[in-house]
């Protein structure tokens, strides 16, 4: 069922609304419209359609929602994520949470010498699963264990980045398409983090590259956004290699300029829900001796236009 169909569907039973408060992040923490806090969401009971609508609208308006003090189980995270669409299962099934294949463990923790999750997820700027045919609508990342220092996540507003491009560049990239590949940086990351698993032929077969427009139009708001990333974009289709490289480097540098970025400093029980059609994100890194564990669910989006 599409998201708009889900919104139009009458509630089977009348579910009371929660006293949810949505507070845009203040200047200095988040710039412009990027980022809002959501306080008072209670997911231990069914979410009313009107609360869902408010959260959905806030997500479209602010692109990054920070749910504070959200004490939910993995099953509740999965159920809440599913309100927005079908969930995507990460190719690194080794790091799925037991009993919840829809949840990817993002963690630097090792148990009995083995990593329990993907420790270097988000090492480069990216939009989740941009390498598949239908890249992600959004991702939810729920803090389980946080380091005393470090471990921040940065978000860059790709609508603002597109809007700020010189007119000449907008015209140049208007109809260009770029290839996205999961494998692009995989071996390089594996060389730095040898515990990253070697991909099996079956895993490699699951992630063929896909081509998407360099400028995408948000399917719900109609806003344009840049859609290339240093993690997954390999080349601009149809350009000579040196030209493609130079243009991508220029776009990567522009798209993550400070004025487009919100830096999230995690608090206990935060869950952050970002719009992968509007932002890119980056894990700023955690000192090796400190433990960090978060659960990520990823919602499928539409083919990119
Ligand atoms: C991710 O890229 O999904 C993980 C981000 C983070 O660990 O901060």
TrEMBL record:
The lineage of its organism: Bacteria, Pseudomonadati, Pseudomonadota, Betaproteobacteria, Burkholderiales. GO terms for molecular function: 2-oxoglutarate-dependent dioxygenase activity; metal ion binding. PANTHER family: (3R)-3-[(CARBOXYMETHYL)AMINO]FATTY ACID OXYGENASE_DECARBOXYLASE (PTHR43779:SF3), DIOXYGENASE RV0097-RELATED (PTHR43779). Belongs to the TfdA dioxygenase family. The keyword Lipid biosynthesis does not apply. Pfam families: TauD. Keywords: Dioxygenase, Iron, Metal-binding, Oxidoreductase. This is Taurine dioxygenase. InterPro entries: TauD-like_sf, TauD/TfdA-like, TfdA_dioxygenase. Gene3D superfamilies: Clavaminate synthase-like. It comes from Hylemonella gracilis str. Niagara R. Residues 21-298 form the TauD/TfdA-like domain.
